[in-house]
Specification:
Shape: elongated
CATH architecture of the largest domain: 3-Layer(aba) Sandwich
Largest sheet: 7 strands, mixed
CATH topology of the largest domain: Rossmann fold
CATH class of the largest domain: Alpha Beta
Bound molecules: glutamine
Strand content: 15-25%
CATH superfamily of the largest domain: Vaccinia Virus protein VP39
Number of strands: 9
Helix content: 25-40%
Number of domains: 2
Number of helices: 10
Distance between the termini: 71 Å
Amino acid sequence: MTSIAQALQQAREQLQHSDSAQLDAEVLLMHVLGKPRSHLHAWPEAPLDTGQLNRFTALVEARRKGQPVAYLTGQREFWSLPLEVSEHTLIPRPDTELLVEQTLALLPADKPLQVLDAGTGSGAIALALAHERPHWQIFASDRSPECLVVARHNATRLGLGNIHFFTGHWCDAVADQCLDALVSNPPYIAEQDPHLVEGDVRFEPRSALSAGMDGLDDLEQLAAAAMRVLKPAGRILLEHGFEQAKEVCNLLKDNGLSEISSFRDLAGHERVSHARKTT
Ligand code: GLN
């Protein structure tokens, strides 16, 4: 019989190349047992049954081969909301919480605003905004039907009724001057960036990560759409790479937007840029 403590010990040894071996092992075992972390620490001697041990062993092996933990468990927390993810969606990053934070800070909470999350993926940004602002009407687009299945499922599970999902590329299906805010975490990594073939990132959909030679193709399209889809005084907030703030601010300016500013993430990098339609 293998106990919880023994299973974790074996998994840690197998995952020793990963700098999160202990955490990965615990998250995978919590997933197999359907129990919180406290259970693992309270019952280290408790035996795993054969089915549990086989499932855990298979997951640890898949992790050892590089599969991201979030794809193995089908879950990742974002903005303290447990979200379903799949290999069709980007795995939500803590960095993106900055985009949510700034959107909440810049827009009035109690007005019935209309806000679009363009390229929603698992729905992370849209769900966080819908959760925090029940008076807002959130729209969420994605051109991937597989992503929209995941995002809709997340909204249903979280009981969030103030989101409308639709298939479409960025703002293509959006009417003129109907949004108080356009927010997005588009792909922004340069095509040749070696980061794309390393670590967890190599398992994520390339279409959600990279955008042209300099990574700016989709940011450019979003900046170009802003004047059309935003209401007067509407705002755009875009996540971008840690060295792209200057280029993104220029794109916003060149497309006729004003009140341009950038915000820093927890690592001190300018990660989100904002602009407003004032003319
Ligand atoms: N920030 C992510 C990364 O560097 C990429 C997310 C994105 O391209 N929008 O892995």
